[in-house]
Amino acid sequence: MKIVIIMNPSQITQLKILSLFLFFMHWTLEIFSQDLKFLTTNDGLASSAVTCVHQSEDGMLWFGTLDGVNLYLGDKVRRARMKDYGSLKGHIIEQILETETNDIWIQTAYGLYKLERLTGITTLFYQFSGFYHVRVIGKSRVMVLDADKHFYLYNTSKQQFDRLDYLWMEGEQIIDMGGTDEYCWIANNRGIYRYRYSYDELHGVG
Questions:
Q1: Backbone φ and ψ of 135, nearest 5°
Q2: Contact (CB, 8 A) for 158 and 202
Q3: Which tens digits make up the pLDDT trace of 95-112?
Q4: The pTM is what?
């Protein structure tokens, strides 16, 4: 028994378009699959759950996972090596950032780590733990907002964080931070504020 399917011209056109689309998708996957690499714990990842990815200025990939930090060199995955702290095994890595000074900043729930790549020296700022925000403002300024809505700015000469009491926003919901080496822009539930580092000035933007 033969089954004859009768289609009108519009249906035939739609079928042709669908066939061309499926052919294009198959062709595209064939091409890009040649450049697609899948990394797992078998390749050296500390955990298959990757929480963040950062590519440093030298092209190296940094993977934050549920069990520390990995580096990808293009041919293999290895654990990061930081003096006194290893690869932060057992740490959930929440964010990896970089400043113009070639420092890598690693955010975890147990503290904020600063890795000086030229020397390998790693510093732990344990005062930041639990829930907090970290942003690199401009090219070199690192600002932290802790759970109590206090802002801290990293002082490169003293190698410590200074609290900016002028910026305390108790009761306000901070949405995000950004800016340049001259100004920091802070968005909250009431609007946008502009903070000027050199004059310690805070202005609301209408």
A1: -140, 140
A2: no
A3: 999 998 889 999 998 999
A4: 0.76
Which residues in 91-182 belong to E strands, given as ranges? 93-98, 103-108, 111-116, 122-125, 133-137, 141-145, 151-155, 160-164, 174-179
Q: Which secondary structure element, helix H or strand E, spans residue 78, and what is its range?
A: strand 77-79
- Which residues, 6+ apart, have CB-to-CB distance to 132 below 8 Å? 107, 112, 144, 145, 146, 147
> Is there a contact between 164 and 153 (Cβ–Cβ < 8 Å)?
yes
Helices (H), ranges, the chain: 9-32
Taking residue 31's Cβ as centre, other Cβ atoms within 10 Å add up to: 8
How far is it, in rounded angstroms, from Cα 80 to Cα 70? 5
Is-contact 88 114, C-beta < 8 A? no
DSSP string for residues in 97-109: EE-TTSEEEEEET
Tokens 């949405």 -> residue: 175
Q: Please say if the pLDDT value at position 25 is more than 50.
A: yes
Which of 162, 150, 175, 99 lies closest to 125 in space, CA to CA? 162
Q: Which two tokens stand for residue 24?
A: 């294009």
